[in-house]
Structures are given as structure tokens and as C-alpha cells.
From TrEMBL, chain A:
Localisation: Cell membrane
GO biological process, any: transmembrane transport
One Pfam assignment: BPD_transp_1
Residue stretches making up the ABC transmembrane type-1 domain: 96-307
Protein's recorded name: Peptide/nickel transport system permease protein
Transmembrane segments: 100-121, 133-158, 188-207, 243-268, 288-314
Top-level taxon of the source organism: Bacteria
Membrane topology designation: Multi-pass membrane protein
Key words, A-Z: Cell membrane, Membrane, Transmembrane, Transmembrane helix, Transport
InterPro entries: BPD_transp_1_N, MetI-like, MetI-like_sf
NCBIfam families: Opp4B
TrEMBL record, chain B:
PROSITE patterns: ABC_TRANSPORTER_1, ABC_TRANSPORTER_2
Organism from which the protein derives: Lutispora thermophila DSM 19022
Residue ranges constituting the ABC transporter domain according to the UniProt record: 4-254
Family named by the database record: Belongs to the ABC transporter superfamily.
Protein name: Peptide/nickel transport system ATP-binding protein
UniProtKB/TrEMBL annotation, chain C:
Family per similarity comment: Belongs to the ABC transporter superfamily.
Gene Ontology terms for molecular function: ATP binding; ATP hydrolysis activity
Lineage, highest ranks first: Bacteria, Bacillati, Bacillota, Clostridia, Lutisporales
GO cellular component: plasma membrane
Taxonomic source organism: Lutispora thermophila DSM 19022
BP GO terms, sorted: peptide transport
Record CDD domains: ABC_NikE_OppD_transporters
Signal peptide: none
Residue ranges of domain ABC transporter in the record: 7-257
Name of the protein in question: Peptide/nickel transport system ATP-binding protein
Length: 321, 321, 333
């Protein structure tokens, strides 16, 4: 198995390489550059031109690409953000931690909501509870992510003022203290809930169907024929087998969260990678955009590898060698 | 005169693995078989699941690509798609399947199912086509009002007859029948077998009858091939195989048939035990060290056995046969 | 000495619900199972043979099924037991062997665990004793390397091995009754023979009664002591195996035997039973259910309410149409 993991990791290199070319090319294809926004009527075009020259933006594109890649590989230097005036690595590093915490909370909430709902709806399918879950599912399916986010923000943030409407932590708190931690949690809770509510849909639906399906499987009939008590039939045979695809999907869930963070963080002005991504795009901050897309790409590949690894751990029928 | 000949046919599937996902080994699904088919005869192909019998059938109709070896139709190779098309081979060789439920398109009416091959190969007017389909339905004993019904409106036996009607639409010379009655109840099975025989007489058809049911094969087939581990272990006329089986595998197969003979059930039980013992004691005469089946040796005009050498044959004849 | 009766089924009806109406899939079945006998129920798909055994151990879907009549085991009528009550009988007193050994084993559990499970719920054995018992059972069903097999998963075993494992599960608590529902249908013929011989061998050791459900008359002939032939929800003929094959009486039994390809059928057409098995919702509820398929037999030969009657010792036949029955091409006599 270690061999396969190593092979998959090595395979990522050419994948990331191709991705980097695409990212770079797309970035260049966008109209304007970081200095376009600086142009005002009283600005000397020569100054702009000099800035462009200094930033290497006048070099042929392949040369620019080469310089970019070489710096990344040799110095781990992803360039500087033109708008934030700081190294991209440092910028993203701070933001990544925020997104990571938010994602973690979201994942925990998602599974905390989805698994009991799915299990109960599946076990007692056709019951009132099941029908309520289905209604919940349809409604959350129908609501776009950003609308739900805005509604919750409006209600809990602006009306009730239960939660802050922006930022990731209150100012003036010392990192490492309990207050700091609670404040972060306070800032994350609403975006996490929004994300989790939407993230549960697929899982609830899938889990419910898996359980309904598992109930009619021959091995469940065998378990019943052995005289296994009904509750144990569910816990030992049905649930575990039904949770298997969910577990295997875990890696992809993470990837999905990254995509979702673009919306959620923007709505809640939460300073994470998603929010950074959106603002970097609007200000043509190439080095940030390119680095973020590469990072997202890398995490996506990692997510799918993670899924495969989990699959081989939980399902004895699948063994990668 | 044989119109179809198969020479040293091999179908190997690669098993991939290792660090670079290279081919490590092969599954020898079919590993060197010769077979020839005369007009108007029925050939049986018997073996356990995984023995390669279906692969041979699929290769003959072109659903599977041979790794090596030749398929000769009237002396000309039909290994490639182009050759098959040029010689009109696809028209002449048809296949019917075990799974009558999934081999008919559920969204098509019977007339469209049966007319499909006609539309591909013959330019008939609507009226001619309808007449031809009616005629075909009549041959398999289905009423004319079946024309505009859908497959789900029929029972398993009727569906299999629709499959047969489709297979004979183009007046083929050979039908490869892959377990055509295995999924059917006894009384329905009898009906389908009777129709197959009737059609054979009418059209001077040949059948390659793939089955694991030795009773059915005995009833249907003139010449029988017994298959094990991708190779033929014995070939001969019905009488050769059933009255004078030599290969331990054939003997084991025949001993395993549950006979309708209650009085002698103890005797059959003893025979099975004895044959099982022979199978273990004499396996080195029939399989080499790697478990591979030896080449066939001719022991009479029609009878062939895969055995180590003539000496082994004598040994076997004296001791067990 | 008369063998002990271990199960008695009286006037069993099992009905399935379609759109608020119930239809009897099993329509008045009576039989007894004795210790140490193999009682076979043979019939074509949809005749209700599996439905009988499922209802005996309560494995049917209780939302869509209605069971009436009596199923008497150990002096109690278990026909309408709750799931909890059935759980005390299943696995412990009645073992069940299924048709598809791969699908019938949990793909995520090791073999050892799956065999051990009934022991956990039905015996006081501790962990070590249970493990010992599992090894003993695997030996008993002819698995040579039980220590290795307990740690394997179902997909790592061959079809025949898996079926042996299912048999070991059924035997685990030394049941009085074993129900084998098409136990060899999914297996290759050589493996089928091995499994059937294993069941025959075990039969002598385990002191249980076996109900064997099958569609294969050959399997019946080789295995059964007593046979019930089932058609459209009813037994049409019940007799000792030897008697049934030597002297089949009911037209359906005779027709079935005629449609098997056998040595004497070479070059001839096989017998085909006219018409089709009626679907559950279109079953004739009155008169002889086989009558529509032997229309050349005059109506007067049938009974109005056909009953299963003993025509010679231990040989029961339904309806009177068997008395003057002849095949269509034989002409009357």
C-alpha cells in the first residue's frame, strides 16, 4: 500500500506541472494587470511602464513562467502580493489557517447533523421523521448557498446580533487564551453552520438510500436468520456497510469545502483563502491567484488520494498494492 | 465440411500492478484451443464458471479480441473487424444470451428488437419488415400480437424466444448460445430447447451451446468439448463423453450430475467419493506442475483427451476407466 | 418406531399485499417434519416454496405479508411471533442456508466473526470457547485450514467454501431444524455435488430435520426422504422420494418429470407444459389450479374443491384429475 501511495504522490508532480501551466496561462489571459488599477489621469505612463518592467511583466510569457516556476522550486518563493505588499506564502499561510479551522468545524458539524439524520431516516423509512428529513433535504437543495448565508447573516448577525458579521476574531485578544479561542469559534459558527447545512444534503440522502438498500441485502437476511437482535443487526451489519461509501467520500468532501469556502468566506467577510481568492481576482493579484489555484489543485489531488486510502482501510474487498 | 475453424485461440487478460502499473501477469481465460464447426451440427461447450467457455463464445462473435490464434470462416481469417465486415461474417454468426432480462432493450417494442438486425443489413420496406418479423415470431411460437408489446410484458421463456427470433432474423449459419436456458424453469426450458431443435432442422443451423448443465448438453449436442482452466480437457461425440469419459475432470463432472434415480442414490454417492479420490490421485497425469492442462491426444476417430502421454493413458485405462 | 415430529405446519396461508389487497402466495399448506429426515419442497419459481420457509422463521417483510394458520414448534404456534420472539428461535433452534453464498455473507466481517455471531446471542460460551467452537464447525463442514479461514473475508473464498461457511453458521448452535433454500443453485455442478454430499454426511451427525427447497428434481432424488411437489401456492403431491419418482401421480409431477432432458429423451422433443404459470394476482382461486394447463382433460375429471388426499400409505395427491390423466399426445384410455 505504501508503494501505491508513493506512486500516487509522485504522479501528482506532472499533474501539478500541467495545472501550473494552465493557471499561468489563464492568469495572463485576463485583461489588465496589477498596475491597471493604479492608473489615474495625473499618473505618468512612464512610471507605470517602469513598474511593469521591474516586475518582469514585459518579458515574453514563457520567460515569465520559467522565472515564476524556478523561484517556487528553488526558493519556495511564490512571489509577492501586489496589493497586500507581502510575500504570498506569508499571506496565504495566515489565511490558510483560518480556512482550515473553519473547514474542520464545518466537517464536524456536517457529519454530526448528517449521520444521525440519514441513519434514522433510513432505518424508519416511510415514517414521519423520514418524511420530515426529506422535506428538509429538498428545501436545502433548493436554496442557493449564498442566499442561505445572507439570510442567516441578516437574521442572526444583524437582527439578533448573536454573532459577529465579519472577521475571524475580535481585536485585542491574546492568541492562546481561552477568550481568543471562544471568539474565533464565535466568528466561525455561522459560516460553518451555513456550509454544514448545505453539505449534509448529499450525505443524508445517500446514507438514507444506502440503509434502505442494505436492509434488503442477503447478508442482512443471514444476520436475522442467526437470531441477531434487531438493534444489533442495524449497528453491526447495516450501519457499518452503509457508512462505507460516506467514509470513502470524505476526501472529496474536503475538496468540496474548499470550493464552498469561496462563497461562504466572501459572504461572511471571513479572512480565509476563499475570500482572499475573490479579492485577488478582482485586483488582478496574479501571484496570489496562481498560488491559490495551485494550492487548491494540490489539495484536491490530496483529497482524492485520501479517499482512496480510506476506502482500502474500511473495505476489505479493496486492496491497493 | 467445417465452415468455421478456430486455431490455437488464446485470450489473455493482463493483470496490472507494481510501481509503474505495468503488466505483471496474464489471466489465461482461453489458452490455446482448436475447434471446428460443421453445418447443421450442435456443439456443446461445458465447463465451470471461469473456465473460459463464455470467452470463446464472445470471441467467435467478435465481442472479445483474441490475443493470438486464428478464427477462419470458410478458410479466411476473420480476426479483425474489417475482415468480418467484408465477408458478411457478422450476419452469419449470432449470439443468444443467458440473461434474457438485460439482453433485450426494455424501451423497444418487440418489432423493433427483432427488426434491428434486418434494418442493419437488409433494405426492407415497412410492410416487408413487418411480415418478416411476424414470420420469425411464428417460428418461435409467439403470437402475432406480440409485435407491439414491450419485453417486460413477457415471461422469461417468451423473452428468450424473442431473443432467438432476433438471432435467426438474418438466416445465420451459426448461433452461439450462451447458457440460453439456465435462467428458465424446467417446463419453460423444455419449450425453448424444442424450438432451438426445430429451428435447427428448418434452417440447417449450427449451434455452439455453452452450458454447465450436462443434462441439457447431452440432449442437445452432437459433439462436446469439456473445458477446464482455459483449455479443452476432453472432446468427443456425445457417446464418447458420456459413456467413456477418460479425463478425471470429465469424470468428475459426469459423476456430479444429480440423477433421477432414487434407488441407486447410495451407489451414486459412492461413485462420487471414488471419482473424487481418482481426481486427487491421478491429477499429475492430466495437469502439469503448474496446473496447466496437457495437449489433447487423439484416442479414437472422434475422441480426444488432454493427457500427459500414451503411457499415462494406458495407466488410466487400466486403473480407472 | 415413529420418528419424533419436530415441526408441524397446519393450513398455512401467506398473503402478500398489492395495493391494499392481499393475495395468498401460499394457500393452505400442511406438513410435518420429523427428526433426521430431509423433506424437500420442489417447484418452479414463484410457486411459493421459499415463501413457506421464510414465514416459518419470520424472515418475510411484515409490512406486506400476512401469515395465518399454524406453525407448531416445541408445542407453540410461532406463526405470528414478533421479531424478538423469532430471534430466540432463529439461529438457535432453526438454522438457515441460503442460495447465494457471496451475497449472504457480510462482505466487511471476517469469516470467524460471522460464524461466531449466533454463539454470542444464543449460548453462554466465553470468547475462547466460541473460538474453539468456530474452528470445530469449520472442520465439520470440511474446511481444511480453519485457522486461516477465520481471518479471511468472504471475497477471499471460493463459492464452495463460502457455502460451507454458511452451513457452519446454520449448524453453529446445533439446531433441531435446518432450512436449506436452494443451497446449491448458484454453484457449479461439481461443487453442488460436494455440498450435497456434505449435507448428507452431516445429516447423520447432527440429529436434525432438514427442509430442502429446490427446483431441481435431480437434487431431490439424490437428497430427499420425502418430497412435496408445489404448484401455484399449494402442494399437489406429497410422497416418499422413491414412491414419488417411481409412481408419480399428479399431472403436474408427471409433466415436470417428462420435461427433463434425460437419456431416453435423445432425438425426441421434450415435453412442454401448455400455457403459463399464473401470476399471483391471477391465480384461479377455485377448482384445480392445474386444470388450465391440461385442457384436454374433461372438466368432470376435476374436483370442485380439490383436496390433498392419501391415495396409498404416505402418498398424497391433490384433486381427482390424476386418476384418468394422460398426456395430450397419448390419447384417452
Amino acid at each position: 500500500m505504501w508503494k501505491t501511495i508513493l506512486r500516487r504522490v509522485l504522479l501528482m508532480i506532472p499533474q501539478l506541472f500541467i495545472l501550473s501551466i494552465i493557471v499561468f496561462a489563464l492568469g495572463k489571459a485576463m485583461p489588465g494587470d496589477p498596475f491597471t488599477g493604479l492608473i489615474t489621469p495625473d499618473m505618468d505612463p512612464a512610471v507605470i511602464e517602469r513598474l511593469r518592467e521591474e516586475a518582469g511583466l514585459n518579458d515574453p510569457i514563457p520567460v515569465q513562467y520559467k522565472n515564476w516556476i524556478v523561484r517556487i522550486l528553488r526558493d519556495g518563493d511564490f512571489g509577492r502580493s501586489y496589493t497586500y505588499k507581502m510575500p504570498v506564502t506569508k499571506l496565504i499561510g495566515k489565511r490558510a489557517a483560518n480556512t482550515l479551522w473553519l473547514s474542520l468545524l464545518t466537517v464536524i458539524l456536517t457529519y454530526l447533523i448528517a449521520i444521525p439524520l440519514g441513519i434514522y431516516a433510513g432505518r424508519y423509512n416511510g415514517s414521519k421523521f423520514d418524511k420530515a428529513v426529506m422535506v428538509y433535504n429538498f428545501i436545502s437543495y433548493a436554496i442557493p448557498r449564498f442566499i442561505l448565508g445572507l439570510l442567516l447573516l441578516l437574521f442572526f448577525g444583524y437582527r439578533l446580533k448573536w454573532v459577529p458579521t465579519t472577521g475571524s476574531v475580535d481585536l485585542g485578544l491574546e492568541p492562546g487564551t481561552l477568550d481568543y479561542f471562544l471568539s474565533r469559534l464565535h466568528h466561525m459558527i455561522l459560516p460553518a453552520i451555513t456550509s454544514a447545512i448545505l453539505g449534509t444534503i448529499g450525505i443524508v440522502q445517500y446514507l438514507r438510500n444506502e440503509i434502505i438498500d442494505a436492509k434488503t441485502q442477503d447478508y442482512v437476511k443471514t444476520a436475522r436468520s442467526k437470531g441477531v437482535p434487531t438493534n444489533k443487526v442495524y449497528t453491526h451489519h447495516i450501519f457499518r456497510n452503509s457508512l462505507l461509501p460516506i467514509a470513502a467520500f470524505f476526501g472529496f468532501t474536503i475538496t468540496g469545502l474548499l470550493g464552498g469556502s469561496v462563497f461562504i468566506e466572501t459572504i461572511f467577510t471571513y479572512p480565509g483563502m476563499g475570500e482572499l481568492f475573490v479579492s485577488a481576482i478582482s485586483s488582478r493579484d496574479y501571484s496570489v491567484i496562481n498560488s491559490l489555484v495551485l494550492l487548491f489543485g494540490f489539495l484536491t489531488l490530496l483529497g482524492s488520494l485520501l479517499s482512496d486510502i480510506i476506502m482500502t482501510i474500511v473495505d476489505p474487498r479493496i486492496r491497493i498494492e | 465440411m467445417s465452415f468455421l475453424e478456430i486455431k490455437d485461440l488464446k485470450v489473455h487478460y493482463p493483470i496490472r500492478g507494481g510501481f509503474f502499473h505495468t503488466i505483471q501477469d496474464y489471466t489465461y481465460a482461453v489458452d490455446g484451443v482448436d475447434l471446428s464447426i460443421d453445418e447443421g451440427k450442435t456443439y456443446g461447450l461445458i465447463g465451470e464458471s471461469g473456465s473460459g467457455k463464455t470467452t470463446i463464445g464472445k470471441t467467435i462473435v467478435g465481442l472479445e479480441k483474441p490475443t493470438s490464434g486464428k478464427i477462419l470462416y470458410n478458410g479466411q481469417t476473420v480476426n479483425s473487424k474489417r475482415a468480418r465486415k467484408k465477408l458478411g461474417y457478422n450476419k452469419e454468426v449470432q449470439m443468444i444470451f443467458q440473461d434474457v432480462f438485460s439482453s433485450l432493450d426494455p424501451r423497444k417494442k418487440v418489432i423493433d428488437i427483432i427488426a434491428e438486425p434486418l434494418r442493419n443489413y437488409e433494405n426492407l420496406t415497412k410492410e416487408e419488415e413487418r411480415k418478416k418479423v411476424l414470420e420469425l415470431l411464428n417460428i418461435v411460437g409467439m403470437p402475432g400480437d406480440s409485435l407491439y408489446k414491450y419485453p417486460h410484458e413477457f415471461s422469461g421463456g417468451q423473452r428468450q424466444r424473442i431473443g432467438i427470433a432476433r438471432a435467426i432474423a438474418l438466416n445465420p449459419k451459426l448461433i452461439v448460445a450462451d447458457e440460453p436456458v439456465s435462467a428458465l424453469d424446467l417446463s419453460v426450458q423444455a419449450q425453448v430447447l424444442n424450438y432451438l431443435k426445430k429451428i435447427q432442422k428448418e434452417f440447417n443451423l449450427s449451434y455452439l451451446f455453452i452450458s454447465h448443465d450436462l443434462g441439457v448438453v447431452k440432449h442437445m449436442c452432437d459433439y462436446i468439448y469439456i473445458m477446464h482452466r482455459g483449455r479443452f480437457v476432453e472432446a468427443g461425440t456425445r457417446e464418447d463423453i458420456y459413456n467413456n469419459p477418460i479425463h478425471i475432470y470429465t469424470r468428475r463432472l459426469i459423476a456430479a450430475i444429480p440423477e433421477i434415480d432414487v434407488k441407486n442414490k447410495e451407489k451414486y454417492y459412492m461413485i462420487r467419493k471414488k471419482v473424487e479420490e481418482e481426481y486427487n490421485n491421478y491429477s499429475s497425469l492430466f495437469y502439469d506442475e503448474d496446473g496447466k492442462v496437457f495437449d489433447l491426444i487423439q484416442i479414437s476417430d472422434t475422441h480426444y483427451v488432454a493427457i500427459k502421454d500414451k503411457e499415462a493413458l494406458k495407466n488410466v485405462e487400466n486403473n480407472i476407466a | 418406531m415413529e420418528a419424533e415430529k419436530i415441526l408441524e405446519v397446519k393450513d398455512l396461508h401467506v398473503a402478500f399485499r398489492f395495493q391494499d389487497k392481499y393475495y395468498d402466495a401460499v394457500d393452505g399448506v400442511d406438513f410435518t417434519l420429523k427428526r433426521n429426515e430431509i423433506f424437500a419442497i420442489v417447484g418452479e419459481s414463484g410457486c411459493g416454496k421459499s415463501t413457506i420457509v421464510n414465514s416459518i422463521v419470520g424472515l418475510h417483510d411484515k409490512n406486506f405479508t400476512r401469515v395465518s394458520g399454524e406453525i407448531i414448534y416445541d408445542n407453540a404456534n410461532i406463526a405470528n411471533y414478533s421479531e424478538e420472539e423469532f430471534n430466540k428461535i432463529r439461529g438457535r433452534h432453526i438454522g438457515f442456508i441460503f442460495q447465494d453464498p457471496l451475497a449472504s455473507l457480510n462482505p466487511l466481517h471476517k469469516i470467524g466473526k460471522q460464524i461466531e455471531e449466533p454463539l454470542i446471542y444464543h449460548t453462554d460460551l466465553d470468547k475462547n470457547q466460541r473460538e474453539e467452537r468456530v474452528l470445530e464447525l469449520l472442520n465439520q463442514v470440511g474446511i481444511n485450514n480453519p485457522k486461516r479461514v477465520v481471518n479471511q473475508f468472504p471475497h477471499e473464498l471460493s463459492g464452495g467454501m463460502r457455502q460451507r461457511v454458511l452451513i457452519a453458521i446454520a449448524l453453529s448452535c446445533k439446531p433441531n431444524i435446518i432450512i436449506a433454500d436452494e443451497p446449491t443453485t448458484a454453484l457449479d455442478v461439481t461443487i453442488q455435488a460436494q455440498i450435497l454430499d456434505l449435507l448428507t454426511d452431516l445429516q447423520k451427525e447432527i440429529d436434525a430435520g432438514i427442509i430442502l427447497i429446490t427446483h431441481d428434481l435431480g437434487v431431490v432424488a439424490q437428497m430427499a426422504d420425502r418430497v412435496a411437489v408445489m404448484y401455484a401456492g399449494q402442494f399437489v403431491e406429497v410422497a416418499n422420494a422413491e414412491e414419488l419418482f417411481d409412481n408419480p401421480l399428479h399431472p403436474y409431477t408427471r409433466s415436470l418429470l417428462q420435461s427433463i432432458p434425460q437419456s431416453d429423451s435423445l432425438g425426441k422433443d421434450l415435453h412442454v407444459i401448455r400455457g403459463m404459470v399464473p401470476s399471483l394476482r391471477n391465480l384461479p382461486r377455485k377448482g384445480c389450479r392445474f386444470a388450465p394447463r391440461i385442457q384436454w382433460i374433461p372438466e368432470s375429471e376435476h374436483e370442485e374443491n380439490p383436496e390433498l388426499r392419501e391415495v396409498s400409505k404416505g402418498h398424497f395427491v391433490r384433486c381427482t384429475c390424476w386418476k384418468n390423466f394422460h398426456f395430450e399426445d397419448e390419447g384417452g384410455n
